[in-house]
Amino acid sequence: MSKLRFHLLEPLRFPLINRFYKSYYPAGKAKKNEIIWVGEDNSSIICCVRFKQFDHYQLLTGMLVHPERRGAGIARLLLTACNQQLNVTPCYCFAFRQLEQLYHDANFAVIPENELPEVLASLLQRYRQSGKDLIAMRHQH
């Protein structure tokens, strides 16, 4: 396996992220005001994660690993690489229940829904109503 390189996405390469999402996670769509981290192998995007910014906190969202590369620990490496971003402001995520351990290993802890900022609590409720089995988590410094 070639060495993966993790870094912030350069603004000029933004269209590549939405192409990546369209190919493997059509519900995901990056926005230009999000902070986006990518992992690349031989200049091809292998994984990405976005940080949606709010006034006093952020939401980790849209983590995606190329389907052919899943199960190799790449998501863990990506979370480790963007650790500095996780600590900029309080960071929340809505994890699929089966991925709880992955996020736990990256210092996220399950929190009660009533500890979420109001905007995120509403968003989580909407996602759950659409049938997604998600848990609220917050990064612990």
Automatic annotation (TrEMBL):
Tree of life domain: Bacteria
Coiled-coil positions: none
Source organism (scientific name): Photobacterium chitinilyticum
Keyword field: Transferase
InterPro entries: Acyl_CoA_acyltransferase, GNAT_dom
Molecular functions (GO terms): acyltransferase activity, transferring groups other than amino-acyl groups
Lineage summary: Bacteria, Pseudomonadati, Pseudomonadota, Gammaproteobacteria, Vibrionales
Ranges of residues in domain N-acetyltransferase: 1-126
A Pfam family: Acetyltransf_7
Gene3D superfamilies: 3.40.630.30
Protein name: N-acetyltransferase
